[in-house]
Specification:
alpha+beta, Methyltransferase, Cobalt-precorrin-4 Transmethylase, Domain 2, Heat Shock Protein 90, Arc Repressor Mutant, subunit A, 6-stranded mixed β-sheet, 4-stranded mixed β-sheet, 15 helices, globular
Length: about 450
């Protein structure tokens, strides 16, 4: 038997200790996975597991102590000189696992270490939800999908990709992960195409609330709201119905760039954590701002500080479905576009709040008329004046555009010019690396 040294991804348990086995299963599943050897210690000395039945009983007892159960693979019983061992593989899980006593453990070196508080929040937010999207919905059938919605999706998908082979409807639904091989709707299938997805997943709805003040006050000044509406149906219909809520569209057109509001709605629907029950997407309209909140903190390595530059999809199949439908124009550029549209309209850039289990986009309806009238010329060199004129004509400038404007100036000098304009608050940097561009602030 090939054995690795005990450490981050190798553990040895010589005896049928179901508590220690359970702790190791949870720690491996919550970390990067690992290999567990039962019946032998790290020095090769055999323990008290003497048969396949004993190993199975110990493992089953351990699995009952894990919430949810931890899946194992590559079960390999091996008879060695004088005894019996089992080698099994634990993969990194898409779920967060705990023990029945509530402890959440991760693997650090050779130890299974309990974590709590913010560490649990980070662990939960780092779990990919792709497998969750593919889970079959208990009790749902093919009849729970809306053929009219599916037909609309297929037509728009084909228009976006005219060279794609036209597949039979159910074959395509299986290919994109909306149906299982047994024709059972999956989570993503029900959310995108379901007739009444809220019957199975009550949390997948959006709620619009309008207040009469900058705080949660109603028309008479009392605590509460002036109007409340709820949006149900598959995700595309939730976006459309929220977009067309009576009065919201008019307010959007006069107070906010409509494209920025739409991006905030689409992002909330596309990226919320649908595993969180009891919470809906919330659209809150105050007199000075609009807040769009989606359940689930920022996923994986994404933070408020790197939100523009980094991209990670919690729900890749839902995101791709909305992209093929046309609700998302370019993958990964929604936040960039929202910022750009708000600033172009004279508003401050949107602000973002990330909590453990929610993410909020805040759009302000205030305008700063000085944005277009500030005498920046006193603080800029001639090259920078050219760059600002270019932005005013074209909406933005890239490093390549600037080099074309000033072909005889070094690339580093031009880069520092743009950095200086960002630092002075003249321009706003959008995107990263090859996608970087600069717009009026």
């Amino acid at each position: 038997m090939n054995r690795g040294a005990p450490g981050q991804q190798w553990a040895y348990i010589p005896d049928a200790d179901s508590d220690l086995i359970a702790e190791t299963l949870v720690a491996f599943a919550n970390s990067e996975g690992g290999t567990l050897v039962l019946g032998m210690d790290a020095d090769g000395r055999l323990g008290d597991i003497f048969s396949d039945e004993e190993a199975t009983d110990a493992l089953r007892a351990a699995e009952r102590k894990c919430r949810p159960p931890v899946r194992t693979s590559d079960w390999q019983p091996e008879t060695v000189s004088g005894g019996y061992v089992v080698v099994l593989r634990v993969d990194r899980s898409s779920d967060m696992h705990a023990l029945v006593d509530g402890r959440v453990l991760v693997r650090r070196g050779t130890e299974n270490v309990p974590i709590s508080g913010e560490e649990i929040d980070r662990l939960l937010n780092s779990r990919p939800a792709g497998d969750f999207e593919l889970q079959a919905i208990p009790g749902a059938s093919r009849d729970d999908l809306d053929d009219n919605v599916i037909r609309d999706y297929m037509e728009r998908r084909q228009a976006r990709n005219p060279r794609h082979t036209i597949l039979p409807t159910d074959k395509l639904l299986q290919q994109i992960g909306a149906l299982t091989a047994e024709a059972t709707p999956t989570v993503s299938g029900l959310l995108l195409f379901g007739k009444e997805p809220q019957l199975f997943m009550p949390q997948c709805r959006a709620v619009f609330v309008k207040f009469a003040d900058t705080g949660p006050r109603g028309p008479e000044g009392s605590f509460g709201y002036g109007r409340r509406e709820e949006f149900l149906g598959p995700l595309p219909q939730i976006i459309d119905r929220a977009w067309r809520v009576k009065g919201l569209e008019r307010v959007e057109n006069t107070e906010y760039p409509s494209s920025a509001v739409r991006e905030a709605l689409v992002n909330a629907v596309a990226h919320r954590d649908y595993r969180i029950t009891g919470r809906s997407i919330e659209i809150r309209m105050y007199t000075d701002r609009m807040e769009v909140t989606s359940p689930g903190g920022l996923p994986a390595h994404i933070t408020v500080d790197n939100l523009v530059e980094e991209h990670y999809s919690r729900n890749p199949r839902i995101v791709n479905g909305l992209y093929q439908w046309g609700y998302i124009e370019e993958l990964g550029l929604g936040i960039d576009r929202m910022i750009e549209d708000m600033v172009k309209a004279g508003h401050p850039p949107p602000t973002f709040e990330a909590r453990s289990h929610r993410f909020t986009v805040i759009l302000s309806n205030t305008r700063d008329v000085r944005r277009s009238a500030q005498p920046w010329e006193e603080n800029m060199n001639e090259r920078q004046m050219k760059a600002l004129e270019y932005v005013q004509r074209n909406g933005y400038i890239t490093n390549g555009d600037y080099r074309t404007l000033c072909p005889h100036v070094g690339a580093e000098t031009l880069r520092l010019d743009l950095v200086d304009m960002v630092n002075k608050g003249i321009l706003l940097k959008i995107g990263d690396k090859r996608g970087t561009r600069y717009i009026n602030k």
